[in-house]
């Protein structure tokens, strides 16, 4: 759908993220020896529903991404380039929380996931944000609980801070100057920003899954950005206002690594499990495709979640 059809009818759904205060954002590399298809299927339909049942989380998404092989994102000097083979990850798990206490509750319960990590992951690098540092500036995507391909041009841009710039100045630039201005540009459909705390590299490896990497490979921010189509991204990159906005990037940014999103899956939203969280993404799609409204009735939901028949 061309954005020229939608610009006059733009609705901003960013308010659905207003209760989110902080996030746990995990970059995931698939295990060697398994196919990409098997990785995607298992992470989506087995690991995802287990994670969805853990307490404390407000939202839980899986973003399945293509490797950053270069050429897709507009050039900003020498800041944008392809990722090295060891930098190319295969997915992002984003979990959000309303309070620090909620995140701690989830972390304690998440130990059960460690036994499953070795089935599909070779590396999992987790980033935390502090309250107020995971922000949705704009969201024109009506469906906040995607289950598959969204028919959009969407990227997850991983950002490394320039050497010599303080963390405070780096965050101030993105949070107060860059992101708010970019979000106001017509071509941008969605803009979400994460400003990361320093990675805890003392987290031990488990079951053959690495939980740390050299500090120089860590990122300090991530930006989720969406467009109706590729043309909108190209038009943005050629606009004078965008060129002026990114002219300061080199003062604050060392590297930008954009990863194209293939599919997105929602397992928890608004503090409640989605149908994909309850039954797996594939089963949820089957229920929707055939129109099985009975599968949403309370007696069926109770039976599937508690193994108890409702009287």
Widest sheet: strand ordering: 1-3-2-9-6-8-7-4
How many runs of DSSP E, i.e. beta strands? 10
Mean pLDDT, as a whole number?
A: 94
Q: Which residues sit in consecutive blocks of at least 5 with pLDDT less than 50?
A: 1-6
Task: Summarize the helices and strands and which ones pair or pack.
Blueprint lengths: L2 H4 L15 E9 L5 H17 L6 E7 L25 E7 L2 H10 L1 H10 E19 L7 E2 L4 E9 L5 H17 L6 E7 L24 E7 L2 H9 L1 H7 L2 H4 E17 L2 E2 L1 H5 L1 H10 L7 H9 L5
Antiparallel strand pairs: 1-3, 1-4, 2-3, 2-9, 4-7, 5-9, 6-8, 6-9, 7-8, 9-10
Helix pairs in contact: 2-4
Can you summarize this structure?
Helix content is 33%, strand content 28%. With 311 residues, it is α+β, with helices and mostly antiparallel strands. Strand 9 and strand 10 form a beta hairpin.
Structure notes:
Helix 2 packs antiparallel against helix 4. It is built from eleven helices and ten strands. The termini are far apart. The model is unreliable at 1-6 (pLDDT under 50). A hairpin with a 2-residue loop joins strand 9 (253-269) and strand 10 (272-273). An eight-stranded antiparallel β-barrel has the order 1-3-2-9-6-8-7-4, surrounded by five helices. The protein is globular, with a radius of gyration of 20 Å. The longest helix has 17 residues, at 36-52. The chain is an alpha+beta fold and 311 residues long. The protein has helices spanning 3-6, 36-52, 100-109, 111-120, 167-183, 230-238, 240-246, 249-252, 275-279, 281-290, 298-306; strands at residues 22-30, 59-65, 91-97, 121-139, 147-148, 153-161, 190-196, 221-227, 253-269, 272-273. Helix content is 33%, strand content 28%.
């Amino acid at each position: 759908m061309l954005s020229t059809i939608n610009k006059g009818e733009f609705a901003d759904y960013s308010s659905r993220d207003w209760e989110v205060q902080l996030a746990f954002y995990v970059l995931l590399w698939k295990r060697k020896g398994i196919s990409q298809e098997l990785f995607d299927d298992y992470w989506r339909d087995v690991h995802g529903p287990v994670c969805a049942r853990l307490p404390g989380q407000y939202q839980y998404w899986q973003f399945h991404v293509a490797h950053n092989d270069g050429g897709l994102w507009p050039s900003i000097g020498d800041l944008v380039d392809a990722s090295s083979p060891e930098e190319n990850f295969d997915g992002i798990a984003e979990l959000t929380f309303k309070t620090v206490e909620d995140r701690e509750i989830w972390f304690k319960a998440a130990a059960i996931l460690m036994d499953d990590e070795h089935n599909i992951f070779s590396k999992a690098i987790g980033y935390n944000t502090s309250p107020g540092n995971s922000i949705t500036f704009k969201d024109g995507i009506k469906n906040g609980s995607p289950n598959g391909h969204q028919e959009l041009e969407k990227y997850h841009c991983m950002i490394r801070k320039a050497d010599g710039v303080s963390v405070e100045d780096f965050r101030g630039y993105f949070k107060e100057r860059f992101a708010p201005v970019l979000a106001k540009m017509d071509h941008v459909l969605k803009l979400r920003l994460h400003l990361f705390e320093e990675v805890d590299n003392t987290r031990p490896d488990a079951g053959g899954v690495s939980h740390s990497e050299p500090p120089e490979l860590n990122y300090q921010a991530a930006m989720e950005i969406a467009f109706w189509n590729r043309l909108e991204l190209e038009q943005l990159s050629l606009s004078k206002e965008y060129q002026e906005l990114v002219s300061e990037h080199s003062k604050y940014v060392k590297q930008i690594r954009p990863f194209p999103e293939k599919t997105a899956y929602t397992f928890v939203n608004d503090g409640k499990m989605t149908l994909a969280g309850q039954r797996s993404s594939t089963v949820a799609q089957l229920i929707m495709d055939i129109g099985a409204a009975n599968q949403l009735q309370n007696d069926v939901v109770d039976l599937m979640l508690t193994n108890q028949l409702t009287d």
